[in-house]
Every structure is written in C-alpha cells, then in structure tokens.
Specification:
The structure is a homodimer. Chain A is of the alpha/beta class. In chain A, 50% of the residues lie in helices and 12% in strands. In chain A, strands 3-2-4-1-5-6-7 form a 7-stranded parallel β-sheet, with helices on both faces. In chain A, helix 9 links the parallel strand 6 and strand 7. In chain A, helix 1 packs across helix 2, helix 4 crosses helix 10 and helix 10 crosses helix 11. Chain A starts with a helix and ends with a helix. The interface between A and B is large, with 76 and 73 residues.
C-alpha cells in the first residue's frame, strides 16, 4: 500500500485511480491513506461548481479548466454523477464532452457515482479531493449534478463555491436558488446572450444586498460558456476568493468552519456505520412482529439499544 | 403536557399545532409525547407526493385531497417548504392555493421548513405524521418541494410514494427521475393534455419493465390536475397500494423495512446529538489552529472523540 501511495504522490494516474476506487468501495485502508497524505494537503484551490439543471455547468467547467490550463495550472476534476438505480452506472452524456482533456497530462478527471443517495455526494469524494491535493494538483474542481443535497454538501469540501444560473428559469428553480444563494462565493449567469439575463442578475444582486456586512461579497459574472465570453474573469474571481480564504482573518473563520464540519462529517459517518451494525445485531423477526403489531414502538426499541451502548446515560 | 395531548387527541387543532411546534423546535417533551401517542398510530394512509419541480404537485395534491374528502375521509397535510436562508420563513406562493381548505374542519394543513438542509425533510416531520395519525386523520399527505434529498427521505415516512412527472422535461430532469423511479409506488403523469405525454408514459413503463418479479407494479396514471381529469383513479390506486402494504405478505416486508429504518433513524439522531455536544466541548481555538496548520488532521481528531464516546471500542 505504501508503494501505491508513493506512486500516486509521484503523479502516477493509475495509482491515483486505484486508491480512489479502494476508498470508494469502502476499503478499510482509507484511514491509513488519509493519515499519510493529509499533511501534504491544503495547497490546492478547491472549487465546487453547482447550479440549476440545464444551466450549462459542464460546458462552463470545461472552459474554466481551459482558462486555468492557459496559466499553466494542473487540474483535477471530480464529477459527481447520479448512479442509475437500474444499471448502477455513472455515465452522463455531458461528461463525454470533457473527455477531450484526456490527452492532457495536466488534467485528471474522475467520475464518482452518488450511489443511491439522490444528489448527495458520493462516498469517498472528500478523500478523493484530499488525494488530488496531496498529489500536487493546483486546482481541483468538484462538479455536481445540481439537483439537491449535493449543493449543500459541497460547501464542506470546496473552498470556493461557484453557482451557475441561467436566464428564464421557472419559479420552482428560483426556490432551489434560494437554498444555493447562501453557500455561493462566486456567481456565473451563463447563457448570457439569452433574454432575461439582466433580470436574473438584478435578482441575485438584490438577494445579496439583503445580507449586510459580508466580509466577502460574491461577484456576479455574465458568461457565455459556448464561446468562452466572461470565463477568464470568472476564473479570476475564483482565485481572488481563494486568496481571501487563505490570507484574511475573515477567511480563516471560513476555513475553521470547514474544518469543523469535516470533523463532524467523519464522526457522523462512523456513527452511521456503528448504528447500522448495532441495530442489525439487536433486530429479530420477533421484535419486528412486535413493532408491526404496535406492541412496542421504535422510540422504546431505540431507548433500549442506547441503554446498552451507554449504560451510564 | 398530558392535557395538551388529550386535547390534540380530541381533535383540537390548536393543541396539535402547538405540539408540532414544540417538537419542531427540538423540545425534549418530544420523546414522552411519542411514547404516549405511538400505540394509537398505524391507522392512517400515509402518502408522500413528490416529483420534478414544475410538475404541478400542489394542484394535484389539492385535487387528491378533494377526492378523499368526497369519500368522507379526513386529511392531514404536511407541506415541506424550503426555508429561505435570509428570512427563515417557509412560505411558498403555491401553498396559498391550498388555503381554500382552511374552512374545512376535515382538513388540517401544516407547513414545515427544511431549515437549511436544502430539500431534506424538516426536523419533526416523522413525529408530526405520527401525531396526525394518532389524532385520527384518515389520510396524511406529505408534499415535498421535489428538489433533492427529500425524495429519498420521504420513503422512510410514507406508506405510499406518489411520483408526479410531466411531459417535455429536459435531460437533467430525467436524471432526477431515475433516482425517484425506484421509490415510486404510484405514478401520475400530470398535464396530460400537453404534447409528449405518451413518450413519458412509455419511458416510465419501460423503466418499470426492467425490474422483474415485483410484488407490486406501480400503476401509471395520466392526470390533468387543473380540471381534475384522472384524479379519482389516481386516488384509488393510492388506497389499493395501502391495502397491499397492510394486507399482503409482501407488503409486510415493506412495512418491516420502514419500521427498521425508523429505529435506525431515531438511533442516529440520538448519536448525532451526543456527538455534536462532545465535539463542541472538545473543540478549542487552539485545536482549530492546529487543524488549519495541518499539525493534526480531522481523522485523528475524530478518532480521539470516538474513543471518548465508546471507550470499549
């Protein structure tokens, strides 16, 4: 295993891919790998790109990568794909577009499935980001499918959250935006050649104005990913925000919050695993029958189990 | 408190509302209330209604309620609204439509905010459902905003999951559908007067055909909520599915699964509360600085805390 990690740290993409697969499949080496590589992390610019379905996230991501490559930066991409419940696969037609980077040694692309938790981040996403960071990628992009929980989870992994909106979305999409608003660090209003772009930009700025005394005011960029308009400026804002996080007292607070939620997240994952195990040991056909007949109830059953784990309360 | 519960059980809507508020705000009486009312639960038909944004869920829910009311059934509605990150409110223009039921004693409507977990179920949703069940509502409808995690969480609360689709949605929406497909018990293709309805219906049936030997094959209904077309048949399928859950050996398995996840959920919530408390006590400015400087790492910190919670491993 140590040799595999050495290879990955030396930039061997096959070693990187293998380690990510091991972690994704819940292999117990994960903890050891993380302890070994963690001291080497914290150098990459970690970006999350999210937004409404159909906002053109993939094309914009593609162009942002191009912009960073022009500056000589190496890029790692974690594309979060919804696993199909029937095939178990994690392939989206959209992703195929990005394959044109595959000839470029400076770009590493990894697709990870959401594995059932609709829209949630895949198991091992955090660890994959840390590995790419330790392996020396300058920029790491996490791209989500933009349909749910991932929008919120992403903030726990990314230093800079980019939200992509488009003109002419319906009211239901606006709702989604409301939830995304509070986690955004940089906005792109994409497809800015379409009618209604000024209205969306004005709405976003209005919502941002509602919060006073922000240490960082999220810039709002108009982009046309298809032809690259506005993309370099958008990429520049991302680096500016990263600089803010790393080099200001207010940014340090953001970093603390992220680290704190990182600890909580690791704890919660461990607790979920334990809970599942504890309940499986406690569960019996008889108990299930009693529950179904309402002779006992889930609250009493849970209290019993907790008493066993914590006899002193 | 006992008096308040008595009042609620006698049908006093103000008492019901107050108990739900207490639970929603994390009041510790919650456990006691649940133990008291749980034996009275299990009689209601608990329905979850979910689907793509813009599918017309609110209008369809409204008409389904009407259909149940015509049969003399009482109805409780839990509307899951995304809390605005800025105002903290939980009001959607859509919900206002349902207010026309407020003059009807047989209908109780409660809106619950998602409180930050974008699309996730609110705290206390499960308990609110149980309370309405104990208070004698014949049918309980949980309506989600349809943008994420709630679609998956809902299966843990509802006996019957209804998925609302519409013709002419884009590819990104199709993805969302894929995740919803596996939890659906009854389908409605709403706005069935729009072009493309046959294609969506065919696609759904095709996906359903991929899974062989289902004990229950989800029926696919064409509805036009605006004028009520197909709604009674849709409501009938819901009752048929409920009958299947309650009165067939295969249905018992579904019920066992739901009860099992109920216990797990209560356990996990308790463990999470404990962990949060322990982490808050453990956290210090100094530790955060060490974390930020990468002198330690979240994996080591989490391992330390877990040792404190579970000293025997």
């Amino acid at each position: 295993m140590d040799k595999l990690i050495d290879k990955a740290l030396a930039g061997d993409t096959r070693a990187i891919a293998r380690i990510i697969s091991l972690i994704e499949n819940g292999d117990p080496v994960s903890d050891a790998v993380m302890r070994r590589i963690y001291p080497l992390t914290g150098r990459a610019v970690v970006i999350g790109i999210t937004g409404s379905p159909g906002a053109g996230k993939s094309t914009l991501t593609d162009k942002v990568i191009e912009s960073f490559r022009k500056q000589g930066k190496t890029v790692g991409i974690i594309a979060i794909d919804p696993s199909s419940p029937f095939s178990g696969g994690a392939i989206l037609a959209d992703r195929i577009r990005m394959q044109r980077h595959t000839g470029d040694d400076g770009v590493y692309i990894r697709s990870m499935g959401t594995r059932g938790s609709l829209g949630g981040l895949s198991r091992g996403t955090r660890e994959a980001v840390l590995l790419l960071d330790a392996c020396g990628k300058d920029v790491i992009v996490i791209e989500t499918v933009g349909v749910g929980q991932s929008e919120v989870d992403i903030i726990k992994l990314a230093d800079t959250v980019c939200v992509v909106l488009v003109p002419g979305m319906g009211d239901d999409i606006q709702i989604m935006k409301a939830g995304i608003m509070e986690i955004a660090d940089v906005f792109a209003i994409n497809k800015a050649d379409k009618p209604g772009v000024d209205r969306v930009a004005a709405e976003v700025r209005l919502m941002l104005d509602l919060v006073k005394n922000r240490p960082w005011t999220p810039p709002v960029h108009l982009t046309i990913a298809e032809n690259g308009d506005g993309v370099d400026e958008f990429a520049e804002s991302i680096l500016k925000h990263h600089d803010f996080i790393k080099n200001s007292p207010e940014g340090a607070k953001v970093e603390y919050r992220r680290l704190s939620s990182e600890v909580e997240d690791i704890l919660l994952k461990n607790l979920s695993r334990r809970t599942e195990k504890i309940w499986k040991n406690h569960m019996s056909e008889e108990l299930m029958k009693e529950l179904a007949a309402r002779e006992t109830n889930p609250y009493l059953v849970a209290a019993d189990i907790l008493k066993k784990i914590f006899p002193h309360g």
